[in-house]
Amino acid sequence: MKIVALFFPKASIGTYLVAMAVAIALPIFAFVTLLLLQLEDNQRSTLRRETAQDALALSRIIDRQLQDMATTLRLLSSSPELENGNLASFHERTETALRDNTLFVIAVDRTGQQLLNTRRAFGTPLGKTANIPALEAVMASGRIEASDVFRGRTSGEWVYNVTLPRKNDPVAALIITQNATDLRKLVTTEGLAPGWSAAVIDQSGHVVAATGPANLEPGTPFDPRILPAFTASRGVFQDETILPHMLLGYARIPGWSWKTVIWGPIAQASILSTWRFLIIGGVALVLVAVLGAYAVARQVRTTIRDIADMANRMGEGHIVSPVETSVIEANQVAIALSNASFDRSQTEDRLRFVMHELVHRTKNLLTLAQAMMRQLAKQSDSVETFRAAVADRLEGLVRSIELLTSEQWGGVSLRRVVDIHLHAFPQSREQIDISGEDFVLKPDAVQNLGLALHELATNSVKYGALSVPQGRVRFEWRDVSEKDKPDALLRFTWEERGGPPVTEPSRSGFGTTVIKAHAASAFRGTVEIDFRPEGLLWVLTAQRATLERE
Question: Domains along the chain?
Answer without folding.
Answer: 8-266 (3.30.450.20), 395-546 (3.30.565.10)
